[in-house]
Each structure stands twice: as C-alpha cells, then as structure tokens.
Design the sequence.
C-alpha cells in the first residue's frame, strides 16, 4: 500500500550545526505534507507543513523542502539545540483528511 | 491549557477487560481524529469525526473498538475484550473544519496520548 518512509532511523549532530532529516513518500495523490516532533512519552507536536503547490517553506529555524519529481521531503533545522532532540515524523495527506505517517527519525544532539 | 486533552494518560488492564479513553479537542475544532501508535512506529489512523458524524473508519478498527462523539465536542474510544496486541498509545487530534491542504489554520494538532498496557 501507500506509505511514507524515512531514509535514516537515527541522526546525530553537534549542537549548533544544521540538521537535515529526509523523507520519501510514494502516494502521488498526496498534496499535503507535515512534520511533527515527538518527545519521549508525549504526543506529536506540529512543526511545519507544506502544500504541493510549494517547494519550500520556512518557519522559525526550520525549513521544509518538497521535491515532487522524486517524491522527497526534507526538514532542515538551523543551529540545532539540545531541545531539538526528539523523534521527527513526516506525514502525508490528501482530501481524505487522514495523515499517513512514516516510522520516524531520531535526532540526537551532541553537546 | 487550550490544547487537545486526553485521559487517562496511562491505563493498565487485564486481558479481556474493557477500557475507555476520553478526548477533549481544541474548542471550536469541528474535526476530531483517533490514531494508534506502537513503540518505534508512526501513528496510524483509526477514525475521524466531523462534528458528531463518524465519517471514516480504518480497517484497523476492529469490531471490538468503538468511538463516539455524541455532541460534537468530546469523544470516547472504547476497546472491548482487550487483547495484548491492543497495547499502544492512543492519540487524539483535532482540527478546524476546513480542508487541511488549504490553510495553516486547519492543521491537525495532537494530544499527549493515552498509553494502554494489556497484561
């Protein structure tokens, strides 16, 4: 079936460096993509979203890039901080209003 | 706290017992969702409501699962005759009634989840 997958299960970065988390999706009908951050024992926290009519969107310290040609999504975190340590999920959606999540990437920030 | 509220946060139950989880969405959010998440996996869609109407149910939602949203505000998720495979975190989320693809205000916001352990 359709799925959202992630290339790397764990990403370790030095504090202050930029982080890039990648995600591949397979449903060409998806036209909405969203990134969530999930800390241990907590629910997913919205970070940023992007619609298929865009290829880039920026938030506070975060940027999402969408490449529809290769069905690839990435989340860039600038100046990574210890508080950014968490599992990051990308999810895709369409007119059905439900989101399909990948299995997540764990981001570890080294002091 | 004006976010999505779920309770209980943790529940341990014996196999075969029934459990019920409650979700209070963000006020004015017409749409309410239930997801299930197991360790190391992303959340999986279970069902969603538009006001009090349950509009879609995943095939993951077996006959032992029932969700309600009687007045279009809070929702309950009941699991009957629990099995060990039901152990997971049950997440509730809500959004405004518009198309999630159209405007940021229609983003889906999650609660902190309800952990279920079936022993």
Sequence:
């Amino acid at each position: 079936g359709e799925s959202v997958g992630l290339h790397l299960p764990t990403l370790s970065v030095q504090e202050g460096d930029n982080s890039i988390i990648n995600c591949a999706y397979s449903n060409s009908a998806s036209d909405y993509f969203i990134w969530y951050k999930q800390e241990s024992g907590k629910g997913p926290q919205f970070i940023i979203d992007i619609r298929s009519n865009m290829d880039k969107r920026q938030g506070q310290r975060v940027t999402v890039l969408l490449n529809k040609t290769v069905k690839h999504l990435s989340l860039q975190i600038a100046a990574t901080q210890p508080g950014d340590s968490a599992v990051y999920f990308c999810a895709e959606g369409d007119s059905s209003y439900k989101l399909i999540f990948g299995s997540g990437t764990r981001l570890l920030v080294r002091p | 706290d004006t976010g999505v509220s779920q309770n209980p946060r943790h529940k341990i139950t014996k196999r075969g017992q029934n459990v019920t989880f409650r979700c209070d969405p963000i006020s004015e959010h017409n749409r309410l969702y239930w997801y299930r998440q197991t360790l190391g996996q992303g959340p999986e869609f279970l069902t969603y409501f538009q006001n009090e109407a349950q509009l879609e149910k995943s095939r993951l939602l077996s006959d032992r699962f029932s969700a309600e949203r009687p007045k279009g505000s809070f929702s309950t998720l009941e699991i009957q005759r629990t099995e060990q495979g039901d152990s997971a975190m049950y997440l509730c989320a809500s959004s405004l009634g518009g198309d999630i693809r159209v405007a940021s205000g229609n983003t889906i916001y999650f609660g902190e989840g309800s952990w279920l352990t079936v022993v």
About this structure: Chain B has a mean pLDDT of 92. Chain B has no helices and eleven strands.
